[in-house]
Amino acid sequence: MTAKELLDLSLGGLDDEAIDFLKSKIIGEYLDFYYADPSSVSREIFMEKLCDYLEKVELKTGDSLNVNLQKYMSGMKNLAGRRVARETRVKKGESKPPVPRARQFYEKAKDIRYLKDPSFEQRIEFVKIILCLYMSEINEKNYMIFDFDDSVENINIDRILLSMKSEIIEGRVGRKKMFDLSSKYGIDMCTVILTLIFYSYIKYAKAGDDL
């Protein structure tokens, strides 16, 4: 998949309201126009800017868009899976309780992540599951997630991005940010921009209303 193909699939069929929403989230915060007034940037110019960005990420990382999409899915899987309740272990002869609903859907997202070449629709399904799970984790404030709200309306993308930027993990040399946004064309910054692109499709194309 090329950057143009991805943008055509995700944004090409959306109306101007969706594109304006995405512009409001990206321009000035993540991507800049140095000679044009952001309010006057047309749909076509904005799409061109996004395409240029994704292609430059390929050049900077040395990986194709498909590889970067797999890295994106890997990072998002790790983000949302830390507090998803696991299956209950039972002793021999005991009845096994149902698998927590959150775990069922997380495992479904993992299965998509490990597909060799997931379709666009499968990628969208993956992102929606992950965003809904992560939103539940944010709302529950570190409690284990057994069930979750899978509605698009439940996703607050601003809270999700804010939380992503503050996530800390234990690295080999100590604590560090989960997403290092210091490199404009690094995979972590690309993760934020891809999340906004996919979320815009989910929100405005009404994609995956029912998981």
Total number of strands: 2
Secondary structure category: mainly alpha
Mean pLDDT: 90
Which regions are unreliable across 5 or more consecutive residues at pLDDT < 50?
A: none
Figure out the total of helices.
Answer: 8
What kind of sheet is the major sheet?
A: 2 strands, antiparallel
Helix content: 55-70%
Shape: globular
Strand ordering within the main sheet: 1-2
- Secondary-structure element series: HHHHHHHEEH
What gyration radius follows from the Cα positions, in whole Å? 18 Å
Short description:
With 211 residues, the chain is mainly alpha-helical.
3D structure, described in words:
The protein is mainly α. The chain is built from 8 helices and 2 strands; from the N terminus they run H-H-H-H-H-H-H-E-E-H. The chain has helices at 3-11, 16-26, 43-61, 65-80, 101-113, 120-140, 157-166, 187-204, and strands spanning 168-171, 174-177. Strands 1-2 form a two-stranded antiparallel sheet. The longest helix has 21 residues, at 120-140. The chain is globular and about 70 Å long.
